[in-house]
Amino acid sequence: MRRVSLLIAFAILSACAAPSPPERAQPTNAATAVFAAGCFWCVEQAFEKTEGVAQAVSGYTGGITVNPTYEQVSGEGTGHYEAVKVIYDPDVVTYAQLLDVFWKNVDPFDPIGQFCDKGSSYRGAIFPATPEEAAAAEASKDAVAERFGRKVEVQILPSAPFYDAEAYHQDYYLKNPQTYAFYKWRCGRAQRLEQIWGPAAD
Q1: Which residues are part of the catalytic machinery?
Q2: Residue 156 included in any domain
Q3: Could you tell me the pTM of the whole model?
Q4: Beta bridge partners of 35
Q5: What is the rounded CA–CA span in Å between residue 168 and residue 44?
Q6: Residue 74 three-state SS
Q7: pLDDT digits over 153-191, tens only?
Q8: Which domain, by its residues, includes 116?
Q9: What is the DSSP letter of 19?
């Protein structure tokens, strides 16, 4: 089930009227990491509250269409994942620590989506950009599988072009806090994360 169309329409209208979030300072030695964990609104919030993260940009990656739209991606014809590009200061937060944030904000055992959002664009995935990141991602996945004694459905995929999502998706949780809170509650995201990872999750 994809997000309700009414929420998307409301998002567009609200974003037009809402003030822009404050500009975030970019670290001089900025690094990037790309993760998919379902609805990018929620993943953005999870990473942006992490110390050392300057910004999380909502977008699409892993597909075949150049510069896809939300409608194309959610129609599941492009092969893209909803994802976030995390811009961070590696002197403050490491890639391994970002992996920990990722795992605590994903259902590792769902092969067809995340929480209430089902479909190929909502699957969990990690997109390492270097052999070192790939090794760290594989090690973290193995650790999750060992901890729970279950198959982990999150994919580790080659880095691919990342396309920023439309402006109304960026910083959605800041621009539309009430609508976002309703969506997140209705989707059962926080409830499922607590069930898997414990009360400190999300």
Answers
A1: 39
A2: yes
A3: 0.88
A4: 84, 126
A5: 13
A6: helix
A7: 999 999 999 999 999 999 999 999 999 999 999 999 999
A8: 5-197
A9: P
